[in-house]
Amino acid sequence: MTTPTIELKPSASPLSDAERAAILANPGFGRHFTDHMVVIKWTEGRGWHDGQLVPYAPLSLDPATMVLHYAQEIFEGLKAYRQPDGTVATFRPEKNAQRFQASARRLGMPELPVETFIEACDALVKQDEAWVPAHGGEESLYLRPFMIATEVGLGVKPANEYLFLVIASPAGAYFPGGVKPVSIWVSEDHVRAVPGGMGDAKTGGNYAASLLAQAEAAEQGCAQVCYLDAVERKWVEELGGMNLYFVYGNKIVTPTLTGSILEGVTRDSLLQVARDLGYEAEEGRVSVDQWQTDSANGTLTEVFACGTAAVITPVGTVKRTGAEWTQGAGEPGEVTVKLRQALLDIQRGTAEDQHGWMHKLG
Ligand SMILES: *Cc1c(COP(=O)(O)O)cnc(C)c1O
């Protein structure tokens, strides 16, 4: 299969410097989008073709477009950070590209070559480089590559046409007022994913499945849902969009990948960063009962969640039916803070990139 090139058709009317600066002063998350997007088509028999960088604009879709009915959709999320020398770099984009291929396989979609995925992200970041926030803070440019089934028809089958797109959105510091622990509702009624299902694929369907539990968590006064395994309803899996780590003194433990857990790039990176800092880091099984017991007896010293958007979020209060406890004193723990800083330093280019994780642009 040939790799498509991306033809540049930039906007004749990008936002002015002043308008962009006003957005960058308070970007929030996922609220504002840059001037351009990348679009690449796939058609059965022809493969990937017509790669273009074009002005950001609405899509026009026939009401019978397959993705709107059967949710054949996958996505990714990665960030571009301004480096101290003013250049821009993305964090481990090949991991996202590989996961995008794995998600595509699971949903019966065509695999985009890793180099095309990276080229598409690079082309958008280069074109909209002025949207990458300044070095110094935790701000970044969030990239959202995704693919949808665009064949028109209501027959249920893998589509014969797809659209791959990359859009970008400036992201403010996740914790503008300083890192604060999140509260967690452990859902014993709803599951996010099942063995043999698509929990290890990054697809909108998993998020749709999580929204009711998310609303229940909010009713319980909690910010996030923790899902348990679907069979025994006992083993901790992950949050709706973040992986979990348990800190036992000098050892960090994250749930073993079971097929119903999404393999986070942040999760993977932290296993390495923790070892680099002299901690023990391993995968294992942790039950919700164990979580409660070890938190009460003090052996479990910290818990945190991790993902591209927030990097690391400490877990504070945990609620399940009939019980509630608070990890630590409700303050971010020492290991949590150290790991967060170490990973951010690599991403922002202020610490040595020992593992070749940073992908420098231009
Ligand atoms: C994206 C995602 C994560 C975090 O993955 P990162 O690659 O670290 O951003 C965790 N869980 C789910 C369900 C996700 O969709």
From TrEMBL:
<comment type="similarity">
    <text>Belongs to the class-IV pyridoxal-phosphate-dependent aminotransferase family.</text>
</comment>
<keyword id="KW-0028">Amino-acid biosynthesis</keyword>
<dbReference type="Pfam" id="PF01063">
    <property type="entry name" value="Aminotran_4"/>
</dbReference>
<dbReference type="InterPro" id="IPR001544">
    <property type="entry name" value="Aminotrans_IV"/>
</dbReference>
<protein>
    <recommendedName>
        <fullName>Branched-chain-amino-acid aminotransferase</fullName>
        <ecNumber>2.6.1.42</ecNumber>
    </recommendedName>
</protein>
<dbReference type="InterPro" id="IPR018300">
    <property type="entry name" value="Aminotrans_IV_CS"/>
</dbReference>
<dbReference type="InterPro" id="IPR036038">
    <property type="entry name" value="Aminotransferase-like"/>
</dbReference>
<keyword id="KW-0032">Aminotransferase</keyword>
<dbReference type="GO" id="GO:0009099">
    <property type="term" value="P:L-valine biosynthetic process"/>
</dbReference>
<feature type="modified residue" description="N6-(pyridoxal phosphate)lysine">
    <location>
        <position position="202"/>
    </location>
</feature>
<dbReference type="InterPro" id="IPR005786">
    <property type="entry name" value="B_amino_transII"/>
</dbReference>
<dbReference type="GO" id="GO:0052656">
    <property type="term" value="F:L-isoleucine-2-oxoglutarate transaminase activity"/>
</dbReference>
<dbReference type="InterPro" id="IPR043131">
    <property type="entry name" value="BCAT-like_N"/>
</dbReference>
<keyword id="KW-0663">Pyridoxal phosphate</keyword>
<keyword id="KW-0100">Branched-chain amino acid biosynthesis</keyword>
<dbReference type="GO" id="GO:0009097">
    <property type="term" value="P:isoleucine biosynthetic process"/>
</dbReference>
<dbReference type="GO" id="GO:0009098">
    <property type="term" value="P:L-leucine biosynthetic process"/>
</dbReference>
<comment type="pathway">
    <text>Amino-acid biosynthesis; L-valine biosynthesis; L-valine from pyruvate: step 4/4.</text>
</comment>
<keyword id="KW-0808">Transferase</keyword>
<comment type="pathway">
    <text>Amino-acid biosynthesis; L-isoleucine biosynthesis; L-isoleucine from 2-oxobutanoate: step 4/4.</text>
</comment>
<dbReference type="InterPro" id="IPR033939">
    <property type="entry name" value="BCAT_family"/>
</dbReference>
<dbReference type="GO" id="GO:0052655">
    <property type="term" value="F:L-valine-2-oxoglutarate transaminase activity"/>
</dbReference>
<dbReference type="GO" id="GO:0052654">
    <property type="term" value="F:L-leucine-2-oxoglutarate transaminase activity"/>
</dbReference>
<dbReference type="InterPro" id="IPR043132">
    <property type="entry name" value="BCAT-like_C"/>
</dbReference>
